[in-house]
Amino acid sequence: MAEGGTNHEDRLVAFVDILGWTQATANAPAEELLRTLQPLIDRAAFHNEDSRQRAIEKYEDRVNPIMLGVQFGFFLDCFVFRVPTSFQGRIYSMVSEIILPLLKQGFLLRGGIAAGKLVHRDNILFGPAMIRAYSIERREAKFARVLVDPSALTAVERQEDDALIQDHLGNWVVDPFPWVATTNESRMQDMLHQLFDPTAPIRVIDGKVQEYEGVPRLRDIWRFQAQVCALSLQKYGPPAGDWVKALRALAA
């Protein structure tokens, strides 16, 4: 089916909610909010219709058709990625790249990734895959995690370097500190610091856990995030040991 058609197509879709965004829009300055959203603004600019047309005009038949099939949308406090199934596990990386910048600004993500039939034409989006991803975000993810549905795991063969981990409940979720490279132990900590600066999100999580000490529901959401981040960094071994220890203390 051509991209310009209107039939349902087999797609992967990520539906993700920015927790606390609605409240922030009522209280924070617009310029500050726009800075927070910059990773999403950049994605939107890269994947909109004008950008696709410019790429076609410039590169003609050298354009990667998979990239032309990527769609992105942002509305209210949610964003959506829609990609062809041939995009494979890169959809997890696209979401992962959003998690850390927003976490450092004090925002958590909760969402779902599913596979199935979908129509997405810029601002128009509907289909069973979207309904499933939305349902995961609203009813199943519960805490701050982007939960991956079995339909996505079936549609896309999982690769070792995909931005996926299993959380402490055994569910597959998007990895906030995805695997980046193999290097010697003496260089690994410096590389992690340069790429992720884990101290910054740990400081934010610590502050939020203290801030919500009297609000158990919100405190537990941040403690859950600390647990997921600890599991993520754990794969880097001893170089990440201090960060993992700090996060586990916050999750306790």
Percent of residues in helical segments? 40-55%
User: Based on CA inertia axes, which overall geometry fits?
Assistant: globular
- Characterize the quaternary organization of these chains: single chain
> Approximately what portion of the residues adopt beta-strand conformation?
15-25%
Q: How many helical elements?
A: 12
Whole-number tally of structural domains: 2
The gist of it:
Helix content is about 50%, strand content about 20%.
Overall description:
The chain has 252 residues and is α+β, with helices and mostly antiparallel strands. The protein has 2 domains: 9-174, Nucleotide cyclase, GGDEF domain (Alpha-Beta Plaits, 2-Layer Sandwich), CATH 3.30.70.1230; 185-251, no CATH class. Helices cover 51% and strands 19% of the residues. It has helices at 21-27, 30-36, 38-47, 49-59, 65-68, 90-104, 128-140, 150-155, 185-196, 199-211, 216-234, 241-251, and strands at residues 9-19, 71-75, 78-84, 108-121, 124-126, 146-148, 164-166, 172-174. Helix 11 (216-234) runs antiparallel to helix 12 (241-251). The termini are far apart. 39% of the residues are buried.
